[in-house]
Amino acid sequence: MAKRSSSANKQKQFNTQRQAQKKRQRIKQIIIWGLVLIGVLAAAGWSIQGYITRQSIGESAPTIGRDHINAGDAHAPYVTDPPTSGPHAEPVSSGFYDTPIADENIVHNLEHGHVAISYDCDQLEDCETVKTNLRRIINRYNSRQVVAVPRQNRDAPIALTAWQRIDLLDEYDEERITAFIEAWRGRAPENVP
Question: pTM higher than 0.85 for the full model?
Answer without folding.
Answer: no
